[in-house]
Design brief:
The protein is mainly β. Helices cover 0% and strands 38% of the residues.
Length: 71
């Protein structure tokens, strides 16, 4: 996963989940790229948020993106 930095964000977090509404386990990163291991044969959903210094701001107005992994 790679995302464009949002000024003045100092850190980011992302979530990868098995359903669009299940993003509750966030992983914090300081750069604009990350990797994660997921199981094949299913569709995954991901979302990114940027830290503004006082609150987490959802990227793309909170859009949840999806991707599929084949076996």
């Amino acid at each position: 996963t790679h995302f464009v930095s949002a000024s003045p964000a100092s850190k980011y977090r992302y979530c990868v989940a098995g359903s669009a509404s299940a993003c509750t386990n966030w992983t914090e990163v300081t750069g604009t790229s990350a990797s994660t291991a997921v199981a094949g044969g299913q569709t995954w959903y991901w979302q990114v948020q940027a830290w503004s210094g006082s609150a987490w701001i959802p990227a793309n107005a909170g859009t949840v993106w999806r991707f599929s992994v084949t076996r």
